[in-house]
Amino acid sequence: MLNQQARSTNRVDETDQSRVNVYRLLARLLREPPDASLISILTQMTGDSSELGEAIADLSNAAAGTSLADARDEYEMLFIGLGRGMLTPFGSYYLTGFMHEKPLARLRNDMRPLGIARNHDVKDPEDHAAALMEMMAGLIDGTFGAIQPLTVQKRFFDSHVGSWTPHFFRDLETCSSARFFKPVGRMGRLFMAIEQAAFEM
Q1: Using an 8 Å Cβ cutoff, are 115 and 144 in contact?
Q2: Is the pTM of this model over 0.85?
Q3: Residue 188: in which H helix or E strand, if any?
Q4: Distance CA 66, CA 145 (A)
Q5: How do residues 39-58 score in pLDDT, each as one tens digit?
Q6: Rounded to whole angstroms, how far apart are CA atoms 91 and 32?
Q7: Backbone angles phi, psi at 130, to 5 degrees
Q8: Domain residue ranges in the chain
């Protein structure tokens, strides 16, 4: 979804790599319908006894108990639909009620100095939840050219991620039509809360 530059050669510590992994998993789950490879990976995942670990285990169980066709149909129903899905995973929509509004312009202004650019093949605006998950991962691991310090990560998170994605993930978790994606919503909601708390320390 995003153009990537030469990744920083600096090493990412284990905690930050774990953050990157969760952001990238959320990005993949939200970016496009699941395929057989993703379902296979999900079924092999295990979680610990934390709330986030339990959500990961629930997602693994959902992947094991859902056919690929049903998971793909659910994605289409939730995020695409006939004209529009049941949920609209864009920052401008959540913050203003409309697409392509000022939150998107502010995001684009903040992306440029960080070396982040949308892939020209992607039609969705940059404030899609999947794109923002990818951006956060890239800021942490240097995908866009440099590993960004926590101050930069926090500023970007507060401005463009924490301002609306917790509400989106809660809506996904509580959507009556979500089955496979219900634990995705729970995982996202819990992870956003963990990130918010960590940034405030």
Answers
A1: yes
A2: yes
A3: helix 182-200
A4: 38
A5: 999 999 998 999 999 999 99
A6: 17
A7: -65, -45
A8: 2-32+89-200
For residue 63, with 0-12 CB atoms within 10 Å meaning exposed, 13-18 middle and 19 or more buried, which class applies?
buried
Token pair listed for 80: 């695409």
Distance CA 117, CA 111 (A): 7
3-state secondary structure of 50: coil
Q: pLDDT band for position 4 (50/70/90)?
A: low
Place of tokens 């999900």: 42
Nearest C-alpha neighbor of 85 from the set 76, 96, 97:
76
Assigned CATH topology for domain 2-32+89-200: TorD-like (1.10.3480)
CA dist 138 and 189 (Å) reads 20
Residue written as token pair 């993949």: 28
